[in-house]
TrEMBL record:
Domain FAD-binding per the UniProt entry, residue ranges: 2-333
SUPFAM superfamilies per record: FAD/NAD(P)-binding domain
Assigned keywords, A-Z: Monooxygenase, Oxidoreductase
UniProt-recorded name of the protein: 2-polyprenyl-6-methoxyphenol hydroxylase
């Protein structure tokens, strides 16, 4: 059996490593001409770290990331609205959230893939097990894994069309070479404005870097020059604590990564014939729960496990989808709803939301963590 993986993002690379561990042959193709170690930070949830334990990568990731002992939501006056004790989560589920630079994560994953990653290979068409690339070359396999992200060509051509949804929020991200004060390095989270639909965060990553992001509720497609974006962020953060403003002031405007936040309505089918989808191609989610990559990582592990267990590829796809789809879709829905709640611009609505979050019983938050982290990685 030979698999063709389309896309060498977090999902595609993790799939390659999982297939490799199971002794399944694969080739991996990526549209980008080179794998640059760019991007901002990312939080890898307890569930992602549990998969990487099984793939033998957790130690390397822990060495280059920061374990978040507590994760908070605060308002701009510093009042805690929600506090999660990650050490308790670690005790219950085996790991906790780690914050890492995307470039570092990519380096660790790429180093673990023993098959060369074919770069500059943009998939434009698939027909009967043959993948056609923009440069005129082709690849053939017994199965094709679409790990080509939210705007997946593989999904749109071979499986189903997605209906994209704008979350109502745009996002700016950046990393800064610095360390937060020691007391804040392992205690991180986000702050919500009391009006205007602004959220912002600064969290320590490994390798002496800090990850900054800010979201704002505005119509899709709003364009800003780096200088205008910088000025806007500065203005919006005036009501936020000075520690956050200090991180912001160290950002190089040219390094700001800007994007509107989209997902798509859950799709009912993740495979067709010899083609199967994983990660954002199957279930892109808004980043409100910090779970998109973690879900892709779970997909990768489970798909490889079924491919190694089942002799019939379609039976493997069917079991993979049956095990994953409901769970991933509930993450997408929770994240989408949270995004709508946090987009509230109106002052009264925002304060009421903050009040309700602050008074949400602990058991509700615990139930959510149980859903996210109590993942059975065994396949029957
Ligand atoms: C602002 C923001 C913050 C986020 N924060 C977090 C977080 O903290 N934690 C978390 O778990 N998730 C987070 N996510 C989500 C996470 O980034 C994604 O869920 C994750 O990257 C999905 O991985 P993927 O491999 O499925 O897709 P992608 O990362 O999109 O990778 C797809 C790859 O396929 C390649 N490709 C695309 N088209 C083709 C083609 N036609 N042919 C060949 N190759 C192709 C692309 O170049 C890319 O390398 C965040 C997302 C955003 C937008």
């Amino acid at each position: 059996m030979k698999a063709i993986i389309i896309g060498a993002g977090i999902g595609g690379l993790t799939t390659a490593i999982a297939l490799q561990q199971r002794g399944i042959a694969f080739e991996i193709y990526e549209a980008a001409p080179e794998l640059k170690t760019v991007g901002a930070g990312i939080w890898l949830g307890c569930n992602a770290m549990n998969v990487y334990e099984k793939l033998g990568l957790a130690a390397a990731l822990k060495e280059r990331s920061v374990l978040l002992e507590t994760v908070f939501i605060k308002d701009t006056s510093g009042n805690t609205l929600q506090l999660v004790n990650n050490l308790e989560i670690k005790q219950l589920y085996g790991n906790a959230t780690h914050a890492i630079h995307r470039g570092t994560l990519q380096q660790i994953l790429v180093a673990a893939v023993r098959t060369p990653i074919q770069l500059g290979k943009k998939c434009i068409r698939i027909e009967g097990g043959t993948v056609y690339f923009e440069d005129g070359s082709t690849a053939q396999g017994d199965l094709i894994i679409g790990a080509d992200g939210i705007r997946s060509v593989v999904r749109e051509q071979c499986v189903t069309k997605a209906q994209y949804r704008y979350s109502g929020q745009t996002c700016w991200r950046a990393t800064v070479n610095m360390d937060l004060p020691a007391a804040e390095q392992h205690n991180s989270g986000e702050m919500w404005s009391k009006k205007g639909g602004i959220r912002a965060s600064a969290s320590q990553l490994g390798d002496h870097q800090v990850y900054f992001w800010m979201t704002k509720a505005i119509p899709a497609g709003s364009r800003y020059t780096p200088a205008d974006a910088y000025t806007l962020i500065q203005q919006e953060l005036q009501a936020f604590p000075k520690e956050l403003q200090e991180v912001m002031q160290r950002i190089d405007p040219e390094q700001l990564i800007h994007g509107d936040l989209y997902d798509f309505k859950p799709i009912a089918q993740w495979y067709k014939d010899e083609v199967v989808l994983i990660g954002d191609a199957a279930h892109a989610t808004t980043p409100n729960l910090g779970q998109g990559a973690s879900q892709a990582i779970e997909d990768a592990y489970i798909l490889a496990a079924y491919l190694s267990k089942e002799t019939d590829i379609n039976a493997a796809f069917q079991k993979y989808q049956a095990k994953r789809i409901k769970h991933a879709q509930s993450v997408v829905s929770m994240s989408y709803t949270l995004g709508r709640i946090t987009s509230l611009k109106n002052g009264i609505g925002s304060r009421l939301r903050n009040y309700l979050i602050k008074h949400t019983p602990n058991w509700i938050a615990r139930r959510q963590f149980h859903l996210l982290y109590d993942v059975n990685l065994n396949v029957e």
